[in-house]
Amino acid sequence: KKEEKKEVKEEKKEEKKEEKKEEKKEEKKDDKKDDKKDDKKKEEQKKEIFVIDPSSNLYYNWLTIVAAPVFYNWCMLVCRACFDELQMDHIKLWLFLDYSSDIVYIFDMFVRFRTGFLEQGLLVKDGKKLREHYTKTLQFKLDVLSLLPTDLAYLKLGLNYPELRFNRLLRIARLFEFFDRTETRTNYPNMFRIGNLVLYILIIIHWNACIYFAISKVIGFGTDSWVYPNVSIPEYARLSRKYIYSLYWSTLTLTTIGETPPPVKDEEYLFVVIDFLVGVLIFATIVGNVGSMISNMNASRAEFQAKVDSIKQYMQFRKVTKDLEARVIKWFDYLWTNKKTVDEKEVLKNLPDKLKAEIAINVHLDTLRKVRIFQDCEAGLLIELVLKLKPTVFSPGDYICKKGDIGREMYIIKEGKLAVVADDGITQFVVLSDGSYFGEISILNIKGSKSGNRRTANIRSIGYSDLFCLSKDDLMEALTEYPEAKKALEEKGRQILMKDNLIDEEAAKAGADPKDLEEKVGKLETALDTLQTRFARLMAEYTSSQQKVKQRLARVETRMKKYGSGSLSIAEAEGEKPAEEKKQ
């Protein structure tokens, strides 16, 4: 037994040793896994390279640089290929520009390999992913083709063959990308679009002129009336005359405005037919686009003019006085000349709420902070109020408020001058200018105010005035989520009234104003009345629906009875027939 106990103990010891070994192995494995994770993180950090954000200014500036050689190749290669004098007289300049553009093309490929793209909303910075993303695109193949050294054939054919470099034209996508990004960045997109279309027209005419001269050279100068005249004539031997004549012929043919010499040979007819088709299709499209652009440029003016015309018709129909009509028209003219016809809600409706709030904060927050009672408010409340500010414009002589009026809104002066005037409307006490505000106490409904919610002064616009308006309802709606801020605002307003001796302290201490309680009770009664009417209507609908259901059930029962009696009579008749047969 002792030996057996010893053996059991030894086995347990061995098992414990094995368990410890396994635990150590697992710990080592975990350590290795952690090391691998750390290595992966380090590798990922190493993989992160300098990446150009395609929405950054750096990328746009590089696009501007790349667009220059692309535009140069599209304009000059065809011209040099068709006009020999242009190529040979300035060969050194062309070689310098050609190989400079090639260097830019090569650098552009490196930039492409370092241009990031978004994956799950994040900019990818992994060099391997960037390379794979670029090499899988069609543009990569075109970029490689555009850099093939086809001009090595110069060594055998000579320098008079710039058409060998036509593969450089395959980078046209970079030029289009530059135009698209410029259109989104410029402050004058319509003007840019029109200029862009004019540029396309000029390039098409330019290429067509060069091809016309090349065809004339192949057929023979002066062989018929359609081709370019004989270059042996000094007047037509100059390079400038050759290009201008070809450009003139191309413009007349594509625009189909003037008459050109008729073609004589088959190839001439074919070229003219193609030109006419190009002119009809492309130029019709371009002219249509120009028309739509011009109409878009005038869309805001047309919409504004329609509003003015409808107001004029209404005033004439209602026989409004000429003075008032003139004031209304002047007010509209002021809005248009000062570019205040933009409906902010309509413009910003497509933006998410976060961006709307940021724009409103950027535009109005500094203005709102000038008001004394809002200076120490929390940021959330200020943002709520900023979104509720409404711009308003007043004409010369308009009263913003009169003494004794119920105050339902406060005003902040953005631009213009207002006068606090006597009851006669002439005597001026104070002139309010940009940044001033008034009416902030009346919208807080402070208990014990001697003036209540009534205006205490007459305020009149001296000239045209731009004001921001904040209504009492909007303020109270915003304050429902900020009860502490509401108490703080009321306390500030009470202190301001106490300084000006415009508060009845006994009434303020008395608590709630019975008038306010009466108003609340009245509101509750009206709400109860509406609920009762709705309940009565629902009960009537319920009873009518019950009656309809009962009627339908009664109809179903009668039909079932009819069908049941009919089936019984048929069964009885069938039972009687075999009995009669048996008797027979």
Automatic annotation (TrEMBL):
<feature type="transmembrane region" description="Helical">
    <location>
        <begin position="269"/>
        <end position="291"/>
    </location>
</feature>
<keyword id="KW-0844">Vision</keyword>
<dbReference type="GO" id="GO:0007601">
    <property type="term" value="P:visual perception"/>
</dbReference>
<keyword id="KW-0716">Sensory transduction</keyword>
<dbReference type="GO" id="GO:0030552">
    <property type="term" value="F:cAMP binding"/>
</dbReference>
<dbReference type="Pfam" id="PF00027">
    <property type="entry name" value="cNMP_binding"/>
</dbReference>
<feature type="transmembrane region" description="Helical">
    <location>
        <begin position="197"/>
        <end position="215"/>
    </location>
</feature>
<keyword id="KW-0813">Transport</keyword>
<dbReference type="Pfam" id="PF16526">
    <property type="entry name" value="CLZ"/>
</dbReference>
<keyword id="KW-0812">Transmembrane</keyword>
<keyword id="KW-0116">cAMP-binding</keyword>
<feature type="compositionally biased region" description="Basic and acidic residues">
    <location>
        <begin position="574"/>
        <end position="584"/>
    </location>
</feature>
<feature type="region of interest" description="Disordered">
    <location>
        <begin position="1"/>
        <end position="40"/>
    </location>
</feature>
<dbReference type="GO" id="GO:0017071">
    <property type="term" value="C:intracellular cyclic nucleotide activated cation channel complex"/>
</dbReference>
<dbReference type="InterPro" id="IPR018488">
    <property type="entry name" value="cNMP-bd_CS"/>
</dbReference>
<keyword id="KW-0547">Nucleotide-binding</keyword>
<keyword id="KW-1071">Ligand-gated ion channel</keyword>
<protein>
    <submittedName>
        <fullName>CNG1 protein</fullName>
    </submittedName>
</protein>
<keyword id="KW-0472">Membrane</keyword>
<dbReference type="Pfam" id="PF00520">
    <property type="entry name" value="Ion_trans"/>
</dbReference>
<dbReference type="GO" id="GO:0005886">
    <property type="term" value="C:plasma membrane"/>
</dbReference>
<keyword id="KW-1133">Transmembrane helix</keyword>
<feature type="domain" description="Cyclic nucleotide-binding">
    <location>
        <begin position="373"/>
        <end position="487"/>
    </location>
</feature>
<feature type="region of interest" description="Disordered">
    <location>
        <begin position="560"/>
        <end position="584"/>
    </location>
</feature>
<dbReference type="InterPro" id="IPR032406">
    <property type="entry name" value="CLZ_dom"/>
</dbReference>
<dbReference type="GO" id="GO:0030553">
    <property type="term" value="F:cGMP binding"/>
</dbReference>
<dbReference type="InterPro" id="IPR005821">
    <property type="entry name" value="Ion_trans_dom"/>
</dbReference>
<keyword id="KW-0407">Ion channel</keyword>
<dbReference type="InterPro" id="IPR003938">
    <property type="entry name" value="K_chnl_volt-dep_EAG/ELK/ERG"/>
</dbReference>
<dbReference type="InterPro" id="IPR014710">
    <property type="entry name" value="RmlC-like_jellyroll"/>
</dbReference>
<keyword id="KW-0406">Ion transport</keyword>
<dbReference type="GO" id="GO:0044877">
    <property type="term" value="F:protein-containing complex binding"/>
</dbReference>
<keyword id="KW-0114">cAMP</keyword>
<dbReference type="InterPro" id="IPR000595">
    <property type="entry name" value="cNMP-bd_dom"/>
</dbReference>
<comment type="similarity">
    <text>Belongs to the cyclic nucleotide-gated cation channel (TC 1.A.1.5) family.</text>
</comment>
<dbReference type="GO" id="GO:0005223">
    <property type="term" value="F:intracellularly cGMP-activated cation channel activity"/>
</dbReference>
<dbReference type="GO" id="GO:0005222">
    <property type="term" value="F:intracellularly cAMP-activated cation channel activity"/>
</dbReference>
<dbReference type="InterPro" id="IPR050866">
    <property type="entry name" value="CNG_cation_channel"/>
</dbReference>
<dbReference type="InterPro" id="IPR018490">
    <property type="entry name" value="cNMP-bd_dom_sf"/>
</dbReference>
<dbReference type="GO" id="GO:0005249">
    <property type="term" value="F:voltage-gated potassium channel activity"/>
</dbReference>
